[in-house]
Amino acid sequence: MKIPARKASGPISSPKRSSPTMQWVPTSQHSGLAFYRGKAFPQRYQGGAFIGMHGSWNRSKMVGYKVAFVPFENGKPAGPMEDILTGFIADESKFEAYGRPVGVTELPDGSLLVADDSGGKMWRRNLEGREQHWKPKCSSGEM
């Protein structure tokens, strides 16, 4: 079956169309998303989104390879994206990574579970009552 060619009609416009609420780094491959409902993390994380960024494979600089957090209020982003779980890039000059985080989910105890589709690991993370940036020891597989 041949799909008929469509004439270009200019930019898409609609009264219902809205501008993007956030901008992403191209090819960082946002592969997983979980809205946090647990109580193990401080209040500022409640209702926000944890985003697994699988990472680029076709850029001159490695982007992604982390889990980020975006605070939400009233169903909309309410602040800038911040890096939460980093340390997956092993050697950028050789384009090597310890792992590539993808799926993100919340466990019943409020901790996060992050699936890594190239390092063969599942990362479990909680805050243990203090805010911090998480940096896994990817080479040993322990956090």
Describe this structure in words.
This protein has strands at about 30-35, 50-55, 65-70, 70-75, 75, 80-85, 90, 95, 100-105, 110-115, 120-125. It has no helices and eleven strands. The chain has a four-stranded antiparallel beta sheet with strand order 1-2-3-6, with no helix packed on it. The chain has a three-stranded antiparallel beta sheet with strand order 9-10-11, with no helix packed on it. A two-stranded antiparallel sheet has the order 4-5. The chain has a domain at about 30-125: Beta Barrel (Thrombin, subunit H), CATH 2.40.10. By secondary structure, the protein is mainly beta. The radius of gyration is 18 Å and the shape is flat.
What value does the average pLDDT take?
77
Please describe the biggest sheet, giving its number of strands, its sense, and whether it closes into a barrel. 4 strands, antiparallel
Strand content: 25-35%
Strand order of the largest sheet: 1-2-3-6
Structural class: mainly beta
For the record, the CATH class of the domain at 30-125 is Mainly Beta
Total number of β-strand segments?
Answer: 11
Write down the overall geometry. flat
Which series of helices and strands comes N to C? EEEEEEEEEEE
Give me the Rg, rounded.
18 Å
Named CATH architecture of the domain at 30-125? Beta Barrel
Helix content: under 10%
Q: Segments where pLDDT lies below 50 for 5+ residues?
A: 129-143
The fold-level CATH name of the domain at 30-125 is: Thrombin, subunit H
Number of helices, where a helix is a run of at least 4 consecutive DSSP H or I residues? 0
Distance between the termini: 53 Å
